[in-house]
C-alpha cells in the first residue's frame, strides 16, 4: 500500500545526481524540483492521514542542489537564480507544512551539514 501511494506521487528516493554533472543543468534542475514536489506531496498526504506523535520528513534534494549549483550561487554564476528559486520553493513548502500543524505541535528544521565552495 505504501509503495502504491508513493508511486502515485512519483516519489523518488533522491534527485538523479548524474544529471548534475552535465554542463547544461536544466534537466538536473527540473529533476530536483520534481523530486522536491513529490516529497512535499507525500509528506502532506501522510501528515493528514494520522495524528502523529513523531514524523520525520527529509528533503534530500537540498544536498544535491548545493553540490551542483552552490558555486553558481556563490559567484553569481549562470544558475544562481535557479539555486535561489529552489530554496524559495522549499521555504514555501516548509511554511505550508507548518501552517497545517496545530499550535501544540513543534516543527524542527535541521541540516546535517552546511555548505560552501571548496
What does this structure look like?
This protein is mainly alpha-helical. It has one domain (2-100). The chain is 56% helix and 0% strand. It has 4 helices and no strands. The chain has helices at residues 2-8, 26-49, 61-74, 80-100. Helix 2 crosses helix 3, helix 2 (26-49) packs parallel to helix 4 (80-100) and helix 3 (61-74) packs across helix 4 (80-100). 16% of the residues are buried.
Mean pLDDT: 94
One letter per element, helices H and strands E, the order comes to HHHH
Radius of gyration computed on alpha carbons: 15 Å
Number of strands: 0
Q: Tally the helices.
A: 4
- Helix content percent band: 55-70%
Approximate shape: globular
Summarize the structure.
The chain contains four helices and no strands. It has helices at 2-8, 26-49, 61-74, 80-100. The termini are far apart.
Topology:
Blueprint: H1 2-8, H2 26-49, H3 61-74, H4 80-100
Helix pairs in contact: 2-3, 2-4, 3-4
Task: List its traits.
single chain; 118 residues; mainly alpha; 4 helices; 56% helix; globular
Amino acid at each position: 500500500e505504501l509503495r502504491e501511494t508513493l508511486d502515485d506521487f512519483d516519489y523518488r528516493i533522491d534527485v538523479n545526481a548524474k544529471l548534475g554533472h552535465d554542463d547544461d543543468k536544466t534537466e538536473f534542475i527540473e529533476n530536483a524540483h520534481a523530486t522536491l514536489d513529490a516529497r512535499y506531496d507525500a509528506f502532506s498526504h501522510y501528515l493528514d492521514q494520522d495524528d502523529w506523535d513523531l514524523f520525520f520528513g527529509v528533503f534530500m534534494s537540498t544536498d544535491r542542489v548545493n553540490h551542483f549549483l552552490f558555486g553558481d550561487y556563490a559567484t553569481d554564476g549562470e544558475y544562481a537564480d535557479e539555486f535561489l528559486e529552489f530554496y524559495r520553493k522549499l521555504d514555501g513548502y516548509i511554511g505550508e507544512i507548518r501552517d497545517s500543524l496545530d499550535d501544540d505541535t513543534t516543527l524542527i528544521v535541521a541540516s546535517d551539514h552546511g555548505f560552501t565552495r571548496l
